[in-house]
Write a structure and sequence with these properties.
Largest sheet: 6 strands, mixed
Mean pLDDT: 95
Number of domains: 2
Radius of gyration: 23 Å
Structural class: alpha+beta
Strand order of the largest sheet: 1-2-7-3-8-18
CATH superfamily of the largest domain: Zn peptidases
Length: about 425
């Protein structure tokens, strides 16, 4: 009988998502129009706060205070000011407290759009075409925020509410530190499971990499280009250091260093030199340069050990360089200090039950088995899984060109994720009458 009741509710939830889907697409378009790059998330958070308040959720909105989180595991150092780094959380409080609690987490920040002439249409003027919504952040991950919210709406449309507390989190800083999610933990938000609808094609993420960001600062002796032989070119001095870092990247990816989740991947860890600056004048030998690096690490790989090897590799390469041995590079860490996280290693009853519930919800919504996948990116799941004893399920819609030009999200995929999320909430939390 219980199975029949669940099946009936799932049918009703799917119909409720369909009935509201045009409004959901409009919501996603409106949210994507906010250019919520780092430091500019306030208008998007205003929008989210208004939507949550209109639905009657208890609203918590606060400015992240570095002093409150910098001592916590998982904190990532920041270089710039932290003004206007604002989180928004909407809370549903259950009357019966009969079920299991849930965090629905998503990030509001998006990466920069890059040169606007590389886009087919303006990145913050979203458009719908051929079943896709185009726009920066539409996929990563505002469609996920929309699916979380409209999944809860579907329950309400069926006259039901979660029979446990649910915390809807819209956080900043996911794309550079994760400190937004960490600030939610510091504020006391805890639950029996977390669901994060990052855009990984309706697959359940079983493992994710860690990420370290750092800068390498080089200084030389300025001279006119006519006397280049007597000056030290701080831009060219970066090249042997970059080569040495890529040699390290190759070693870290060796088969004997890969954990089980990544054994089938020849090159899961990627080193990216994402930015380089240097010099002041075309006819002067550059006296300084700075290059920014992103390096991935495996789940279980120590950040401290990784940093020690990075520093040793850079200094060894510098000592082999005629100029650099007399002016050793300075290494500055900023942004991601992120450990890897593997849900696959969580054998707790909560994790097993949560995965089973999501698998059943996915089957009900799509008619297909839930595919498991290890990814080569990082998400905020690590905070819940590593530091809060909370299984974190990363499961979201299909998107393409995230972090690239013409980013787009598959709207039918968002519809399926919304249905599956609603069904998961109903199973995991249970339901009560409104």
């Amino acid at each position: 009988m219980e199975h029949d009741l669940n099946a009936g509710l799932n049918t009703d939830l799917g119909a409720a998502v369909d009935a509201a889907f045009d409004r959901q697409v409009t919501f996603l378009s409106d949210l994507t129009a906010h250019p919520s790059t780092r430091g500019n998330e306030q208008s998007a958070q205003d929008f989210m706060a208004a939507e949550l308040s209109a639905r009657g959720y208890d609203l918590d909105r606060w400015q992240i205070d570095i002093a409150e989180i910098q001592h916590l595991p998982g904190f990532s150092p920041v270089l710039g000011p932290y003004e206007d780094a604002v989180n928004v959380v909407g809370t549903h409080r259950s009357r019966t407290q009969a079920g299991r609690s849930l965090i629905l987490n998503g990030h509001i920040d998006v990466v920069p759009a890059g040169p606007l002439d590389m886009w087919d249409s303006p990145p913050f003027e979203p458009r719908v075409e051929g079943g896709w919504l185009y726009g920066r952040g539409g996929g990563d991950m505002k469609a996920g925020l929309a699916s979380n919210l409209f999944a809860l709406d579907a329950l309400r449309a069926c006259g039901r509410a979660p029979a446990a507390d649910v915390f809807f989190q819209s956080v900043v800083e996911e794309e550079c530190t994760g400190n937004g999610a960490l600030a939610c933990l510091a504020r006391g938000y805890r639950a029996d499971a977390a669901l994060i609808p990052e855009p990984f094609s309706e697959h359940l993420v079983t493992a994710q990499l860690g990420v370290i960001w750092f800068q390498v600062h080089l200084k030389g002796l300025p001279t006119h280009v006519a006397y280049a032989g007597s000056g030290a070119n701080a831009i060219e001095a970066a090249f042997p250091l970059i080569r040495a870092l890529h040699d390290m990247e190759h070693r870290w990816n060796a088969a004997e260093n890969r954990p089980e989740d990544y054994a089938h991947m020849d090159h899961a860890l990627n080193l990216n030199v994402g930015k380089i600056e240097g010099g002041d004048w075309t006819s002067s030998v550059p006296a300084w340069s700075v290059f920014d690096v992103r390096m991935a690490i495996f789940p279980g790989q120590s950040i401290a050990a990784a940093k020690a090897e990075i520093e040793q590799v850079i200094l060894d390469a510098a000592r082999d360089n005629d100029f650099l041995r007399n002016s050793l590079p300075e290494i500055v860490y900023h942004g991601f200090h992120a450990e890897g996280y593997a849900l696959s290693r969580d054998s707790s009853a909560k994790a097993v039950s949560a995965i089973a519930a999501l698998d059943q919800a996915h089957r009900s919504a799509t008619g297909e088995a839930l595919v498991r996948e290890a990814i080569t990116a990082t998400t905020d799941a690590r905070f819940f899984g590593l530091y809060a004893d909370t299984p974190a399920l990363v499961y979201g819609p299909r998107a393409e060109a995230i972090h690239g030009f013409n980013e787009r999200v598959d709207l039918e995929s968002m519809r399926r994720i919304t249905k599956a999320t609603a069904m998961f909430i109903a199973d995991w939390c249970g339901t009560e009458e409104i």
